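During the first year of the project, the team set up a workflow for recording each protein of interest as an amino acid sequence followed immediately by a discrete structure-token representation. This format lets reviewers and collaborators read both layers of information side by side without switching files. As required by the reporting guidelines, we include two representative entries from the current panel. The first entry is reproduced here exactly as it appears in our internal archive.
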Amino acid sequence: MTVNLAKIAEFFHTEIPRVPSGKYVHFITLRYSKSFPIFRTDDVLNTVRTTAGLQDQTMINHLVMFKRKQTTPERLVGRELLRSLGLTSGTEADKEKYCAYNGEDSCKKCPDCIIYGFAIGDKGSERSKVLSDSAFSLTAYEVSHRLFTFNAPSEQGTMSEGGKMRSSINGQDHVLPEIIFPAIETLRDPTKESFIYVLGNLLRTKRYGAQETRTGVMENHIVGIVVADGEIFSNLHLTQGLYDACETTNNHLPHFSQVKENTQKVVQELLEREAVHTNFCLYGEDLQHVLQEVQGIYKSPQELQQTMQKLYEQTSTYASQYGAFASEKTKKEQGNSKKGRKSKKEQQQELPLEEEE
């Protein structure tokens, strides 16, 4: 039986629940550099030293793609889409639709605010429903980077100006092309529409890291989708499992196709050690079928508009019932209802009426 989007959506919510409800979608992804990304927080590339594999206990230095280096570009791509569809606006004068990123002027109700979360001091917050973690290069830092020297020529295109040599020469460490960062991005408590939104952001984001307008092109290859009732293993665990499976060393760097072929086997082995129930594990033809369905929605302007409009209605409803726009009284009543307690008003209504004399 071919698995399609409608089939896996049977396990999703039809509306966003108030509290976590034990439904998780894990997107197993291979982030694959196609140019020279720069992942740094200071002046050098981010690295960390860990054991190479789960079996191979050799210590190696990994390049690190910190969590926000992954989710921030994807959020911005999603926010761009919402503006293009007229669901949100970047114009302050449009008070109903205006939403600022990472600021006190966040609208607190659009798909980006509700799904990826926000925090505005005492003005409200929403926990992200997209769970991510730092990703680690499959290969060691020593074979995954190179230092390049660059210059800034004058308007004449030379390094001299007015008879004097310019001194604008500098060096920058870059990640090399075709470096693989295995990563798992998780969507908690999905609806069909939020699944399409987050998966679309993964598929449509092409640039990561610093200086992204001139470099940083990467491809996200979705190599598996796991629907389960809990969280699964970490990015580092997946990377180390793949390191063993691909027999990676500094003298043997695995080809992307080899890593892709090994991913299903490694994921299945690691899942067997997890205390979770899996509803679906999509690979191969089933996975490609679902990905093509989602890509088809993004290629159809009318279908995309309908899908994102429905998602916007879901997040707006969530915001008004449980989020930043729900009154304290409503939240308290909903909390009492969940705990089986009744509000004071409900208790008074149930008191027996006194008999009239």
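The second entry, processed by the same pipeline in the following quarter, appears below.
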Amino acid sequence: MNGDTTKKSTPYTVPIGPVHPALKEPVMFTFKVEGEVVKSVDFAPGNTHRGIEWMGMRRNPVQIVHLTDRICGICGIVHSLSFARAVEQIAEIEVPQRADYIRTILHELERMQSHILWAGVAAHELGFDTLLFLTWRVREQAMDLIENLTGNRVNYGIIQIGGVRRDISDDQIPLIKQGLDYYRGLLAQMKTVFLDDSTIRMRCRGHGLLSYRDAELLCAIGPTARASGVAMDVRHDYPYCAYGDLDVHPIIPPQEFGGPQGDVYDRIIVRLLEIAQSIDIIQQCLDNMPAGEILWEKKLPKLLLTLKKAQGEAIGRVEAPRGECMHYVRMDGNDSPATWKVKASSYSNLMSWIPMLRGEQLADVPIIVASIDPCMSCTDRVSVIRDGGSPGYLTKEELTRLSVEKTRRIEQCH
């Protein structure tokens, strides 16, 4: 004993991240806790910046579509479709109706595999790995369908400015219907294992609460907002592709489950019901898909010439599995866009973590963080504000210099 009577004061600080087994995406959390209870929380994203926008600004729009496919390993259709829709508005390109239906089918298949993947992650965060293995096994059917229709399981390369690169043949339609029947038969089982399990109900009902008012004030979107009762969905509010011809409405927790309460359990309900909705949307597309062309312009040089002459700005909006995704594009009559900015869905939902986590126990942090289905690789951007407030970009050499200087500062402290 050295006679030191200094006592630690509460609340204690508990850092989690930026890379931690409890997190599926790199983000730095700093919790203030008393005992096991979270009193306050802060977080710092920005660990997965890859400079995709910078690369895109040095390519033509057709080349950029391939980059947009790589913004996210799950939402390739979402980003390439958002970008293509922005460019098509600027160049006044009218997408053939058949191409719009094919885009819609692939968009919904992507939503299904994304929601099922999330369900597996959520089960793992709850310690229910048997359910993780079940959900990821059944997800394979959607992945196989996507591969059959596009040629790839990820980075599909199916979207083109003015349409799609591949048609859906008559031989492929029975495969799609077979896949839809497979998931229809699984829905009841999925609802039973997720919604009737007493452990999942105890861990998720009443935890990670986001009220309707907080969801609106924090501009939450997608299943995160709809679970709190905010009835918004870009497919319904601002129809695009074939959605204007289809029966689509925002999914909120129904009264049979007690109505919207804004907790983790409701986010599970919304995503499971949206899988059923995607099955119905794809079926509607198959029943009503028109014949015709799949590209506005087949000749690539002619398409590039049209895009080079385009001037103006536009926003491409789509309803991603995590909520509204937007791509802003400005073109000024050159090969490359003058501006390209991506606002991914997770960007709008991250602030929801603050009210969700406050008052919860540390053991509930993994499932609550995962409940908004965050995707940091979609979201992370770098914006540098120089002295005087003017925005700018850092070159590779400047970043290297900053890294070296930081290393030297750290060495001097030891």
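For the second entry, the following points were noted during internal review. The two ends are 28 Å apart (CA to CA). Residues 97-125 form the longest helix (29 residues). Both points are flagged for discussion at the upcoming steering committee meeting.
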